[in-house]
Amino acid sequence: EAGVAQSPRYKIIEKRQSVAFWCNPISGHATLYWYQQILGQGPKLLIQFQNNGVVDDSQLPKDRFSAERLKGVDSTLKIQPAKLEDSAVYLCASSSDRRYTGELFFGEGSRLTVL
Amino acid sequence: AQKVTQAQTEISVVEKEDVTLDCVYETRDTTYYLFWYKQPPSGELVFLIRRNSFDEQNEISGRYSWNFQKSTSSFNFTITASQVVDSAVYFCARAVEHAGGTSYGKLTFGQGTILTVHP
CA angle, B64 as apex, B11 and B1 as ends, to 5°? Predict the structure, then answer.
């Protein structure tokens, strides 16, 4: 089966500009996650969707970050305006709730550099 | 915040050596889940194992084995006879179960251990 697809793989912007990342999860996976991984750190959950509803966005900086999952399939994460500290890899993951294994399937990530 | 600590930032071994990656976690919960993920240079995290807090049995899968000890809040990972392909960043993580079972994905990750296996 096809894995989690993310784009773009790399993005360089200047501070105060905006950027959007796209994610297409594994077909049939109801739950989708966006994680932020700063260099040298473990990933941190930003937002979790189940179908097209938000389950957890407690760690999403809502003054500048937004995410949506229209139609319960693919998702977009937006940052506007970007700050230097937003430089990170943004990982999308999905999981199948039917199995409850706890296994998340991750994409290769979108690396953001803010200058 | 309840942390996951991987004290070893980097480990370097020669092929065929055994290596153990340490993980210590904090929790106030009775039911929780522990995970190990591998992140190769390509970037995607790959699931290796999940254990729940009620199952302290050690597990072996090929060259991989895991030692879960609630008494010391540790969940260590051993690779036997390491290979160059094992070179990656390894993350330990924990999740807490909430009603509805929707919190599996809210993983708290450790800082990761960079493992380099030299030929």
Answer: 65
Q: CB distance from A45 to chain B under 8 Å?
A: yes
Chain B residues whose C-beta sits inside 8 Å of any chain A C-beta: 4, 33, 35, 42-47, 50, 91, 93, 95, 101-107, 109-112
Give the model confidence (pLDDT) of B44-68 as tens digits.
999 999 888 888 888 888 999 999 9
pLDDT tens column, A42-82:
999 999 998 888 988 989 999 999 999 988 899 999 999 99
Burial B95-104 (b: 16+ CB within 10 A, else e): bbbeeeebbb
> What's the full length of chain A, in residues?
115
**Beta carbons within 10 angstroms of residue B47's beta carbon:** 18
Beta-bridge partners for A67: A77
Q: Which of B42, B102, B105 sits opposite A93 (nearest CB)?
A: B105
- Please, how many CA atoms are within 13 Å of residue A95, restricted to the half-sphere of its CB? 23
